[in-house]
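FORM 7B - TANDEM STRUCTURE REPORT

SECTION 1: FIRST PROTEIN
SEQUENCE AND C-ALPHA CELLS:
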Amino acid sequence: MAAAPRGWAGGSRWTWRPVARDALLARAFHSCTELRGRLYLVGGLLAGGATEPSGDTVVLDPAGDQAVRMGARGGPRRSHHDAVPLGGRWLCAVGGWDGSRRLATVAALDTERGEWEAWAAAPGSCPPAGLSSHTCTRLSDREVRVAGREGGTRTQRRFGSIYTLRLDPGARTYCYKEEGDHTASRSGHCAALLRGPGPRPAHQLLLFGGCSSAEPEVAGHWSPGTIKDEPTVAPRLMEQLAKLVSSGRGSQQGPRGLRHHSCSVVGPFAVMFGGEALTRPRDAVCNDLYIYDARKSPSLWFHFPCADRGLKRMGHRTCLWNDQLYLVGGFGEDGRTASPQVCVLDLFV
C-alpha cells in the first residue's frame, strides 16, 4: 500500500498530492477548463485584497506538468467568472468582474489561432444585469445554463434568475434568454449536471452552496434523451469514489453555508472540496471533501474532513483529465495567499 496521505478521516484516507509548482498558476477566482488535453486558466486575482483581475491566459500541460503564459492578444481582465469549451476549439469566458463592474459579456479564445475575440450580443438577447461568482454549465455544443449572482450586492434580488445562453461561433454572437424558474439567491456556489438512476435516466442541474442551505437546488430538468452528454472517461477514479462512499467512514452530511468551493462531476458523483464557510467569522477557509452520490434515489451526501491545514483552499478550481482530478490555484488558509501548486486527488481505499 502507498504511504499514508496527509488528509484522512476515520481510516478512509485521501489527499491532494502535489505534482507541479509554478508561479504562473498562483491565482484565485479564475477559471480552469480542459480543452484538447490542456488546462486553460483565465484571469483571476493574484493576491488577496486585489481589485484588478489578471488579464492573462495560462496553459497547463498535465502530461508534462508544465505551464506557459499564452501570448494571445485581447485577453479579458476577469475574476469571479466562468468558462466553457465549445466545438473542441473555442474557450468562452462568460461574465465576471473586470475591476470596476460586473459583466454579462462573452469573450472567446480561438485556441487554433491563439487569439481572443469579443463576441457580440445577438438581436433579442436579454442579458443579466451583471454576473459574478455564477456558474455556467454546458448542455450542448451551443447551449449553456447560467445561474447565480446577477447585479451587485445592492441590486441583488431575493431570488436567483436562471438563463439559457446560446453561443454561435460562426456568427461570433451570443444570446441570453431568461427562464421562468428561479432559485434561491446564490453566489459562489457550484453546479453539477447529473443523471438520475434507472435504465432511462433524466438529467438534473443541481446547485450546491452559495447560501446557508445544505440541500442542493434544481436549476433545470431534462427528460431522458434530451441531453446527449459525453460519458465520463474516468473508470479508475469512479471505482475509487464508489469504494470510498461505501466504506462507511464518511458522515452523511452535506456542506452547509459554503461558498467559493470547487465541484467536478465524475460519472454519478459530484466531488466538492474546500471553500469558505459563511457561518464562521474566523478560520473560515475549509479543507473538507464532500461527495454527492446520485446512483440511487434519494441521493446521498458523504463528508470526509481533513487534518492538514496546508490543504485549505478557497476560490480554487478542480478539473478532470485522464482519469485524475486536478486541483489548481486558490487562496490558502489566510484567505490571501494564492497557491502555485497543482495537485491530484489520491484516494487510499
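SECTION 2: SECOND PROTEIN
SEQUENCE AND C-ALPHA CELLS:
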Amino acid sequence: MGDFNSNKILKAFFIPDYILVAGSEVGSSSPVPACPVVVFINSKSGGQLGGELLVTYRSLLNKNQVFDLGEKAPDKVLHQLYLTLETLKYRGDNLAAEIQKRLRIIVAGGDGTASWLLGVVSVLKLPKPPPIATVPLGTGNNLPFSFGWAKKNPGTDCQSVEFFLNQVRAAKEMKVDSWHITMKMRAQKESSCDPIASLELPHSLHAFHRVSSTDKLSREGYRTFCGGFWNYFSMGMDAQVSYAFHTERKLHPEKFRNQLHNQSTYLKLGCTQGWFCAPLMHSSSRNIAQLTKVKVMKKQGHWEDLNIPRSIRSIVCLNLPSFSGGLDPWGKPNRKKAIYRDLTLPYVDDGLIEVVGFRNAWHGLVLLAPNGHGTRLAQASRIRFEFHKGAADHTFMRLDGEPWKQPLPKDDDIVVVEISHHGQVSMLATPLCRSRSIHDTSSPAGYREENDSSDEESAENWEERHKFGAADTFKFPDNF
C-alpha cells in the first residue's frame, strides 16, 4: 500500500478491500474515488507486455482490483463484485453506492479479449453496466483504435499507466450497437460431439442447446452456436489468413512477442495463402457468391436477396470504422450517391451494420489511398448466410479478430449464420475517437467525405485498372 499512499493521484481510482474481497472487515470511512476502476489484463497478450502491465497496475492500485484473465473469469469477478455492492448499498453504505455509480472497466488484450469482456457485461445484465476502456495489446487492435485509444502496444511503466488512467477518467461514454450471431449446423453423424471443437471457437461464441422446439433445424440433430460481436464478422480469404496466423502463433508463441514482427508475419501469410493473387491461386468456388446465399433485412420483417459480385472473395459485416489494423472499408459515401443508393455514414449506434466486399488484398490496400473503400454491398439490421452443398467443404470465418475453420455441408444439410441487432453497450472514448454517433452532429477526427468525382469502380474490371496497386492515388505507408 506504500505506493498508493505516496501518490495522491491514484486515490481517484482506488477501491478498498472490503468491497473486493468477500468476508473482509469494513474499514474506516474512505474518500469517494472519482473514477473507481476494475482492471482485466490478458497476461498472455502482447508477448511479455501483458505480464509487465499486470505488475504495474497492481503496484499502483489495490492488487485486488486488478485481475489476470488467465486466472479468473471476468463473469465470476463481476458477478461477485456487484453482489457485494448491492448488499452494501442495502445496508446503507454510501461508498459502495457511489463506486457502483462511477465504476469503469479497463480491459487490456487483443480484440478477442475486449469482445469477451463486452459479452460478459452484456450477458450479466448489470444494474448500471460500467463503460469499458480498451488497452491495445493485440496485433490489429481495431477496437481500441475505433475509440481513440491508439493501436500501438502501450508502455508498461508507472508513468504510462498513470497517463492511461487519467485518460480513462476524462473519457466520455459512447453507446455502441451490439450484434447477435446465431450459427446452426448438423452435428457429425459418426459422433455426438459438436461439429466445431469448443477450443476453436471465439470466446464470445458458444454452444447453446436450449433452442425452441418450433425450430426445425434444432429438431433434426443440429447444433446451435450463439454469441455476440461489436466490431466485425468476416468470412473468406481474410479470415483464412488470420486463421493461419493464429495457428502459427499457437504452435510457436515465443516468436510472436513483438507487434511489428507479428504484423510482418501477417503480411507474409497473406502472400503465401494467395490473398494477393486470389484469381490465380484459387478457383471460383472460393468466391463468396459460390459459397453462400445472402439475404439482408433493411425494413423490419422484409428479407431480400443480396447480389454479391462474382469476384468478391471476402465479405465483412462491419460495426466500427476500423478493420485489419485500423482501415475503414466503408469510408464516407458522397451525400448525392448515398441518397441514390440508400446509403448512410457508418454510425456505430444506428442499428445498422455495413456489409463490404473485397476481391483480394490489393483491393484492401486501396483503403490506404485517399477516400479508398471496399465494395459497398448493403446496410442492414439483419443479415443471413445460407450454405448448401457445394464445391468447398469448408470456409473460414472471423469474429472480432478471432478466426475459426467452418465446415460446410457435404450432403443435403444446411449451415445457417444469422446476424441481428441486439441492444447496445457503453464504451469509453477519447477526443481522438474515430467512431461516429448518430446523435453527434460534429465530425470525428479525420472525417473526410468522398469527392463527387470518385466514381464507384465496377467489380469486374477492377483488376485490369488497378493491377498490383498501380492507381495514381495508391501509396504504401512510410513504415510499410
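SECTION 3: OBSERVATIONS ON SECOND PROTEIN
The two ends are 45 Å apart (CA to CA).
The CA atoms of residues 181 and 419 lie 5 Å apart.

SECTION 4: SIGNATURE
Preparer initials: ____
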